[in-house]
Amino acid sequence: xxxxxxxxxxxxxxxxxxxxxxxxxxxxxxxxxxxxxxxxxxxxxxxxxxxxxxxxxxxxxxxxxxxxxxxxxxxxxxxxxxxxxxxxxxxxxxxxxxxxxxxxxxxxxxxxxxxxxxxxxxxxxxxxxxxxxxxxxxxxxxxxxxxxxxxxxxxxxxxxxxxxxxxxxxxxxxxxxxxxxxxxxxxxxxxxxxxxxxxxxxxxxxxxxxxxxxxxxxxxxxxxxx
Length: 226
Fold this sequence. Notes:
Oligomer: single chain
Helix content: 25-40%
Shape: globular
C-alpha cells in the first residue's frame, strides 16, 4: 500500500480496538523539579508501555504512523505525544531496554516495518513491561514552529545502551514521511502535579511546571495539525 492508504487502514483498525490488550495498561512515570520558591514540585504522568501496534497480544505488529494520524488517535483516546524530555524520562524508567537495530534498505516499506518488529520481538524474548530503545519517537516540539519549512515532523530518541540517543531532535522530514524506525507512544493527557490533576497543555503553559515535561527553551507546541 502507499503510505496514505496504509495510514487510513491503520487508523480504522486502532480506533476499532484492534490493539494488544497490554497497550491499554499505562505505566506511571514520576518526575520532580525545584520551583522558583525553592520548593520541590512533583508530577506523575501515564504512558503506554510500548509503541502503537495493531493486533492481539499473541499476534501484533508495531506500526509507524505519520504525526497527523497519530494525532487523530491521540485525540480520540484523550492522549498526546511526548516531548523530548519525556522520551528521556521513559527510557530511564523502562524495565526492558533493548539495543537499537538500524536497517538501511526499503526503510519506508511495510515489509521492513514488519521485519523490524520481528527483530525487536527476537530481542525482547517475551519480557514484559515498559520498553525503550527500539524506536525513534514522534514528538511534539517548538522546533516545528521555528522551522521555516512547512509540514514538518519532529523525531527524537532511539537510545543506545549508554543512554545516548541515536536521533537528536530533528525536523528535517516532511510530515508524511514515515520509516521503520519511527514509533508512536501515547501519553494520557491528564498530569498529576502536586496532587492536582492538570491538562498537559496547562502544565506546558505554566512558568514553573513546564520543566516537568519539557526541556526546550520554548514549550508552546502542543499538537500536530490533522
